[in-house]
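Appendix B.2, paired examples.
Example (i):
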Amino acid sequence: MSETRIADDSLRPVRIWLYGLAAFVLLILVVGGITRLTESGLSITSWKPVSGIVPPLSEADWQAEFEAYKQIPQYSVLNSWMSLADFKVIFFWEWLHRLLGRLLGFLFIVPFAVFLIQKRLPRTLAWPLFGLFLLGGFQGFLGWWMVSSGLSELTSVSQYRLAAHLGAAALLFMALIYVPRRITPGRVGGIVRRGDYAFAIILAVLLFIQIAAGAFVAGLDAGMGYNTWPLMDGALIPEGLGAMQPAWRNLFENALTVQFNHRLIAYAIVAYVGFALWRRARAGGLAGAHAWLIGIAGIVLTQVGLGIATLVLAVPIHLAVTHQAMAFMLVGMTVLYIADMQRTATV
């Protein structure tokens, strides 16, 4: 692309902004993972969208927050040993997670308004971007809806609501990657043949399902048990997968079944990506947009290794957070592959 063409690319600042927002969502995901793994998510028992930006500033404020935390089951059942100093640690992670979520909204709406004033955004792009802003706001609501599930009866948040919260974050991240790539000027090399889109879209769906399955693993602390691989509870197919009635509950509430399914989906993704590589190599090679498949395959194998290490080491925080973040990067790379195929000659 020539210097003149770059200068005439009025959407370049928009693309940089959207990629920056995607990176910020990834940062929020990392902090959210730490918040979850340190059991910090229930430390703030109220939702104050504006005043909650300011943390407790006096000893009296801290005591008030601590007393509110003492009223929920997580404290009385699991954390009655905590001192105020201990509480401040878990409070920090939840406060930081919420602060970053608020900041994401600010980082979205202010540049969005500036770009509108500059008439840099065509209507066909402005409305979808505003939809992403609404999705981000809905994500904040889902976060509080998730937290509220653990304030009265449970000692942690509902795994169903955790999956909804993480799933919405994944959709937002995918959109923030797809839109700027799709509006990048120029064509991409290679040839897209019949079925290539379908293969990539199915992969993106499989990865999204795996992210949701990982949320159920996290929500049930299913990774804290059955810490062997490749056997699980001494067998390739352990007993007790259908112990709950009705049967569908096992998919979402039986820690054994939830972890087993997470493993199975990982195996399916590895096989599917391997087949996609073989298919493309036979159909014309991995040139142009299809070069993404090489990177996708590499990250899939790395992700499997991380998942196994996280499991057998009983979920150390640094590995678990890296595993979760890499899942988002993997689905993001798949979205880039899809977007680049749409910028390639089709036959």
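Example (ii):
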Amino acid sequence: MINVYKILMNNKSNDKDIKKYKKSNTSCQKCNKNNKNLCPYCEGDKVIKYGFYKGIQRYKCKNEDCGKTFNNDINNPFRYSKKFKDMWEKYFEVFLKGVSLRECALRMNITLVTAFFWRHRFLHDLCEKSYIEKIGSYVELTKLVLNENFKGDRKYHKEKRDKIIIVNAVNDYIDILPIFAARNFIGLFDIRDNIIPRLDRKAYVVGLLDGRLKVFAKGFNEINKIKLKENKVSNIDISYSNKIKTWLTKFNGVASKYLEHYLSWRAFEYKNSIEYKKDKPVLEKINFKVNAKAEINTYISWKKIKAKVIPI
């Protein structure tokens, strides 16, 4: 089995049906906001100046499939929404409390659709800020299995709903990386394409509660010749994934395509609810209190939120 993982880590398959890992699969990929020569819609570089509007320079994309116009204010998180600009700090306080969307709409005197949009604007921003390409140091892997959920989708889904498998990686610095690993079953190619690219080769990996993750972690460490150093933390939180499943119940179902956002939210809450002491081998729980300032630095449109898809 160790030899199998060695092959997976050192070779790439030519099978076109196997989904390859790409960081661009996630909406949380960071963009270069300072590059004004790219179209923000298609990221094309064929851009020309296209006049002024209220004294602001506008541009047009010359890509035949795009052709959209924009200005340098495209990344302003408050564009197109005066109400959000005036009320976002108050909404952030309600957001942190995790109350229902209907309660948010009632407290803020906004519609249910607006409450949903604002929540996902915060979640998208949080997801971008907490994005980790690779996780290292001492890493524990636990598996979360959820039924595929089409909540909010008005299409009739007669197909069988898959099991969505997420591998949560938590390290001793309480960096948390949720990895969308597979559907129904974690296969060897799923490990190769979705899990291995997200792990630092110098990381010491421990698989918990799942036989395949245990074998993979053992092989990963052996292949990379990584040994557990003395005084390293062990058993950070063996039940982290189970706690997520309990936490998600308060939302009465979450659409699978938005799971990425909610897992980042949970990671944010979790990291702010514990205190890690380097001189002790365990995590000590303290009363939950998020000490976070209200800020938002990114923008996502309603159209892009609705168009979001599950990464696997």
